[in-house]
Design a protein that fits this description.
By secondary structure, the chain is mostly helical. The protein folds into two domains: 81 residues; 41 residues. 87% of the residues lie in helices and 0% in strands.
């Protein structure tokens, strides 16, 4: 009886602890656009050896990019909460707009950076995309696995 009670207490304690950790995850303080911009510029300065003039040219580009990203996430969150999905035309328009922004950003970076810096910038961007792609593939795999488990339970 004591062993059963001990196991039960440990199980409840473990469950409460993990739930508390999950709850804190989304409640982190978010950085402001200016803070995120400053951090990104400093990272790029370290990796690409930017001059002061280049930093000043890149800062507004990154600030715009960070602000647009925040806006996009707010829209996505609102859509998720309302359980509405974009139509195929809306999805196409969003993707086109996103790709146009990426092209413009890349063009501006090419204008600001010298050839060596731009090559390093491209490599950094490629690595970042691969990391996100792998992360997305892993999430998709877990989602499909979860859906299969739910279907088998029914």
């Amino acid at each position: 009886m004591k062993k059963l009670l001990t196991v039960l207490v440990l199980a409840v304690g473990f469950t409460v602890t993990t739930q508390a950790q999950k709850g804190d995850k989304g409640k982190r303080e978010q950085l402001t656009v200016e803070q995120q911009t400053e951090l990104e510029v400093k990272k790029m300065t370290l990796k690409l050896d930017l001059t002061e003039a280049q930093q000043n040219q890149i800062k507004p580009l990154i600030a715009k990019k960070v602000a647009e990203r925040k806006e996009m996430w707010a829209k996505r969150k609102a859509m998720k909460e309302s359980d509405s999905k974009p139509t195929s035309e809306e999805r196409y328009a969003m993707k086109t707009k996103m790709l146009d922004k990426q092209i413009a950003y890349k063009t501006e970076m090419k204008r600001i950076l010298n050839e060596q810096q731009y090559e390093r910038f491209e490599k950094m961007a490629a690595r970042k995309m691969n990391r996100h792609k792998k992360k997305g593939d892993r999430k998709m795999h877990e989602k499909r696995k979860h859906q299969k488990e739910n279907k088998s339970d029914k």
